[in-house]
């Protein structure tokens, strides 16, 4: 998300007062009658200081995207990373400062006009004091916006038009292998604060349709009860993205996780997400279709049996995703 550079109160005031001085010098060297000069000079200083500072804050307010207009995934993402309420509060404080400064501008220009030439500079000093105190009043909010800027610099770039599958399953079950086989290019890895290794996003096109497969190492690969609140919220963010979840079982159990615990994780994810889930049993090259395995395979709807390492079963997954894509298109047509 684009948050522009956030100045400190000192920087804002310095810029405002410096420009005010310049404006004053300009008036001083103009050919206004002498008796009016001191008042006109102070008037220019007050006006310029207020306007320059207002402009700095307005520029920030204009450049930060309206949070409620962002895709729900980004709204949740921002909420998890920095807090939407806090961000809105800080922007609200900037608005408050702009309104007050514009009030000061009118109030003090009027005061200078009504003052004697000798008192004009006193009025201006009073105005500058109040301007400074308003800017310092929002120091915490400026600091927060600066923190948010650095935190939100590398938001993952999501293609919201693509049909999106999010991969889930215990570590070592073959998620990356699958991602590499389905998607053509090297998956892009974006910063994602809930996972230690970043989010991996792979893309591919099929019959002129775009697909996107997302892996979030460290998030959808362990029991939900072990998750903290941030991670649970991150799951909500993912739910806004996923048209479908690909849950990968390691049928061979060579990853070290018994099918029983893998199935428990599947149940948890099914419980949390309202998104449809496609169950994929991987590493079929290492197993016999024994009764024990069949028990699990038969428990789920339309399972796909694959050997990701050899690329076997990948086209069936793509067919399945195409079905979801067609369904999504059909739904969006009837929604219009
Ligand atoms: N025999 C066999 N091995 C596989 C298959 N798919 C993946 N593997 C192996 O399983 C191991 C783990 O695969 P990864 O793709 O790294 O698994 P992952 O789920 O992405 O693991 P994390 O990144 O730790 O979550 C690797 O050594 C793969 O080569 C398969 O179909 N058959």
TrEMBL record:
- UniProt keyword Nucleotide-binding present: yes
Q: Which domain of life is it from?
A: Archaea
State whether keyword Nucleotide-binding applies: yes
One Pfam family of this protein, by short name?
NOG1
Q: Which organism is it from?
A: Methanobacterium congolense
Keywords in alphabetical order: GTP-binding, Nucleotide-binding
Write the protein's name: Nucleolar GTP-binding protein 1
GO MF, one example: GTP binding
Span of domain OBG-type G: 163-326
